[in-house]
Structures are given as C-alpha cells and as structure tokens.
Amino acid sequence: MFTLYPAVDIKDGRAVRLTQGRADAETVYDQDPVAAARSFADAGATWLHVVDLDAAFTGEPRNRHLIERIVEVTGCRVQASGGVRTLDDVEAALGYGAERVVIGTMALTDPGFVEQVLATVGPRVAVGLDARGTVLQARGWTEEAGDLFDALKLFTAMGVPRFVYTDIARDGMLQGPNVEMLRRVADATTASVTASGGVSSLDDLRTLVTCHARVDAAIVGKALYSGAFTIEEALAAAGEAGA
Q: 37-94: per-residue pLDDT in tens?
C-alpha cells in the first residue's frame, strides 16, 4: 500500500513552503498549520508530515504546541521532523503523539545518535537524507554532510527501517520527482523509502507508486497548497496506480 503524507511546514507559527530549502524563499499560506492539517485529515489523509522549520534552522523548537494540537485535532498519524538533536527531542515528539520521528542533521553529524535512538524507541524513527545530487545537506540544507550512498550503507547496516529522501533541487519547484535517483536510493537499501520533493501532478504520484517496491510513500506539499490537485484526487491516483 502506498501512503501519501501531506506536508505541514511550520515557521513562526505559520504554514509555509520553502523553495529548495531556502529560508529566504518562503511562501506563507492563509491557513494556520492546525487548520491546514485538519483540512487534509477531513479529505481522507491518514498520515501527515509535520516539520518544525524554526527548530531545523535555529535549533529552537518553537512549534511543539502546534504539532501537539495537530495530533489532537486530526486523528492522523504524524511524522515529525525538524531540529531533532537529542534523545529528549525524540521522546518529546513521541510523547505529544507523533507516530514517527525523522532525524536529519544529527544522523549525518553523529551517526551514533541514530544507534542510541533505535535502541531506545525502536522502529519509530526514520533518517532524513536530503541531497543535492549525491551530496548530503545538513543544518537546514546550509552545510554539506557527506555522500548519500555512504550514508545509506551505514544506516541500513544499523537497522534504520525507513529513509525520507529529498532531492533538494526539486523541492518546492513543482518540476516532478527525480525518479532515477529514487530508484538508485531504493536499490541501495533494504529499508522503506519515502519520496520527498518535486511532486507537481497526479501523474507524478502514479509514477512514484510504481517506480520501486521499496518506495512506498510520498510527501506532498506545494502542489496541494497551490491547488494542483486535491487530497481526494491524490489518494485516488495513488490507489489506482497501486492496484
């Protein structure tokens, strides 16, 4: 079964979308984050990908109360991401109801941290691999952090159950996902892979559903906010392609 994750990116208490991860290239949408999340849930979404961009860029988790509220009002399973730097951060996210926590920068700068988290919370963790080409990016996509495929090998050996792979060049650009690189990523691991970045149409979703057996989920953001398609249409397209 292929899973769609509508994205709710939060910065300064507002729902935003960035272009290629740049903090200075944001679009602020009219809905507050909780209202946006509720609209996705009402339309049939069962998972949400919620990102605390303030925590990602500054290390200061200013939006935990909003993420907790999203869990409360939607009934969706929430994948929380952004600024996860300590075991306390992981446990706080799980404590306010997140189903899964994505570790980004800390995984790349301190791989031993991932081992610690896996030992403590088990499979309720994913590693975010954000890359320009094959070069990983950390700290809100402002620093280079090694080779994508070296990281895949290392974290797969640790037992990481899921990777969230983002092609930064496609993120927020509405130019379609990098399917070739997604297949290479999926071939390089035995873990599940969530595709992130670039989805612009229902045909893009249909392509992702069938591109690789281990690519079993996609995060969709800007296309939903800009009205390219609805959650209902996306769920139907994913279901048809996976049938």
A: 999 999 999 999 998 876 666 666 666 788 899 999 999 999 999 889 999 999 999 9
Domain boundaries, the chain: 3-242
Q: Which residues pair with 16 in a beta bridge?
A: 9, 28
CA distance 56 to 43: 28
Residue 84: CB atoms within 10 Å: 27
Catalytic residues: 9, 130
Is 64 within 8 Å of 98 (Cβ atoms)?
A: no
- What is d(CA 192, CA 179) in angstroms, rounded to the nearest whole number? 15
CA 63/CA 126 separation, integer angstroms: 20
How many C-beta neighbours within 10 Å does residue 12 have?
11
Instruction: Scan for tokens 């090998």, then name that residue.
Output: 153
Q: Compute CA distances 172 → 25, 108, 198, whole Å.
A: 10, 23, 6
Contacts 24+ apart (CB under 8 A), 39-44: 40/6, 40/8, 40/74, 40/76, 40/224, 40/231, 41/73, 41/74, 41/75, 41/76, 43/230, 43/231, 43/232, 43/235, 44/231, 44/232, 44/235
Handedness of CA 62, 13, 138, 79 (dihedral sign): positive
> Among 58-62, 64-68, 109-113, 198-202, which is the least confidently predicted range?
58-62
Question: What is the per-residue burial (b if ≥16 Cβ within 10 Å, else e) of 205-219?
Answer: bbbbbebbebbbbbb
CATH 3.20.20.70 fits 3-242, yes or no: yes
CA nearest 162: which of 227, 202, 107?
107
pLDDT of residue 30: 44
